[in-house]
TrEMBL record:
Recorded GO MF terms: beta-lactamase activity
Annotated EC: 3.5.2.6
A family per Pfam: Beta-lactamase2
Catalytic activity: a beta-lactam + H2O = a substituted beta-amino acid
PANTHER family according to UniProt: BETA-LACTAMASE, BETA-LACTAMASE-TYPE TRANSPEPTIDASE FOLD CONTAINING PROTEIN
Family per similarity comment: Belongs to the class-A beta-lactamase family.
Domain Beta-lactamase class A catalytic: 51-298
Assigned keywords, A-Z: Hydrolase, Signal
First and last residue of the signal peptide: 1-24
Chaperone listed as a keyword: no
Listed GO biological process terms: beta-lactam antibiotic catabolic process; response to antibiotic
Name of protein: beta-lactamase
Superkingdom of the organism of origin: Bacteria
Lineage: Bacteria, Pseudomonadati, Acidobacteriota, Terriglobia, Terriglobales
Amino acid sequence: MGIAKTSITAILLGAAMAVAQAQAAPALSDDPALLAQLQPILAAHHGKVALYAVQLNTGKAVGIDQNLPVQTASDIKLAILYEAMLEVREGKAHWDEKLVLRPGDPVPGSGVLTFFDTPLTLTLKDALTMMVIVSDNTATNLMIDRFGTDTVNARMASLGLVNTHLYKKIMKPATGPMPADQPKFGLGKTTAYEMATLMARIGRCELHADAPRTAPVPPTSSEGFAKPDAQDLAVCAVGLKMLSNQFYRETIPRYLETVDSSETGTAIASKTGSLNAVRNDVAIVAGKSGPMVLAIFTYDNADHGWTVDNEGEVTIAKLAKAIVTDWSPSGIDGKTLVPGLGLDVK
């Protein structure tokens, strides 16, 4: 009886997961010409690629293995940023609240806080800025201490992002049992579709959902989200400014930016993620024909180098250029890279 009951449970669970994945699968526009442009780039890459890109005002979309769970590397920090923004809006957190970096807290890897003397006092906003613009691992751990992995994961689940998960702090031992798939994914997992959807929520400044989801609302839709008010927009302006000042610009922005964004501003807000065999980038690109969200993940890459010409980074850049040029042939313009992205919402 025990074996039979377990088998039935497993079957039912598998069926439920299949239904959820089917609900989450986006409907892609029929764009064979664009797919034809992308195929040579994909074929030339010595590794694997999962991507999802969508133009929010037209609904044009393209996906390749967009529902396949992949390693996030540092792109999971977008989930932490979203949670922080929402808690600031709700008054549960404050940009100027003080956090103390203590001896033993700094960890190696990306960022600069590992080189600072401790104890060091930072504001919440400063730590989030470090986490986003230079992908600071030490700042990320401060944010995980502040908000908690369970809270972040519950938020992702409430958005219907069932395959987006933050496992633990960076380069610190887990404080409890880990899911069985943690060794495969490391810091976090997601899908290209779910991460594009999360970035769209940030760009559209959608911080209030009317009910938990079992599947994500498509990034082109605001269904179930309240129209952003002035306080929402103020919070989103801070988060979008962080993303717009991303320091690492060798992937999606590589062939798209033609000006010094540090002086003139940018039309691209992004968050990168990198491991030896992984290069990722998730971005909002303000096209003159309308805003686009691109989530491009490369993994199992043969090139493990850490130069700007890493093949994974160049592949992402080529894919981004092809997509953006096809959908916005007149180029990009940062004037619409503001909370709400210039879109009409209910």
